[in-house]
Amino acid sequence: MTELPSVRGAEVGRRIGVGLMYGLWRPRVLGAWKVPADGPAILAVNHSHNIDGPMVMGVAPRPTHFLIKKEAFIGPLDPFLTRIGQLKVDRATTDRTAITRALGVLEHGGVLGIFPEGTRGEGDFASLRAGLAYFAVRSGAPIVPVAVLGSSERPGRLVKALPPLRSRVDVVFGDPFEAGDGSGRRTRTALDEATERIQKQLTEHLENARRLTGR
Question: Which segments constitute the Phospholipid/glycerol acyltransferase domain (predicted)?
């Protein structure tokens, strides 16, 4: 039987994350009350900075288990990320262990965090992978869109993957929505249709978040 990630560990990670994020940047959190208070939920987060995961982990109202690329589990980070309930995933293959553990989180009423774009990029939800649709349709868990909007890049900065220290970072949670069409179908066509619905919802949320924050 596949071991589930630790909920207690994820809560420890949440407390560490909130301390670090408020210590290094100035988070402004909007709409956190929209995250369901209990039951399974999937946080779908745009990804443009390396701090997006720790930021959402810290400011989310519930402990969150993020699917994180295995390349991040290096040196002392490996046991640390595992202890705080995060999920290692091999993006180069169909990682059945990661899939089983992620579904287990949702089946036990937990919160799963996903970067649906698959990797750090423009953070505009332009290219979604099918993984998010699969988890949402398979589990029936609602998706909560999350937009992380950091400061714009400054020319000549050495660490371009991070927003400037002490700059404001907005985290905007959106309204939960269902990805499936209610039929329960899990065919390739159904997942493709769900991915289209998800992309539309996430893009709309990002546009609303930008208008709301002026970013």
Answer: 41-151
Q: How many CA atoms lie within 13 A of 182 on its CB side?
A: 0
What is the rounded CA–CA span in Å between residue 211 and residue 142? Answer: 24
- Domain range annotation of the chain: 7-213
Specify the fold of 7-213: Glycerol-3-phosphate (1)-acyltransferase (3.40.1130)
Q: In terms of C-beta distances under 8 Å and separation of at least 24 residues, what long-range contacts does 73-77 make, across chains too?
A: none
- Around Cβ 99, how many Cβ atoms within 10 Å? 18
Contact 59, 168 (CB under 8 A): no
Question: Where does 32-83 show beta strands of DSSP type E?
Answer: 41-45, 64-69
State pTM to two decimals.
0.90
Closest CA to 6 of 68, 74, 87: 87
Phi and psi based region of residue 140 (left: phi greater than 0; alpha: psi -120 to 50; beta: remaining): left
| pLDDT digits 0-9 by tens, 25-52 | 999 999 999 999 999 999 999 987 788 9
- Two tokens at 146? 């999350």
Decide: 47 and 120 in contact? Cβ < 8 Å.
yes
pLDDT in tens, 83-119: 999 999 988 888 889 999 999 999 999 999 999 876 5
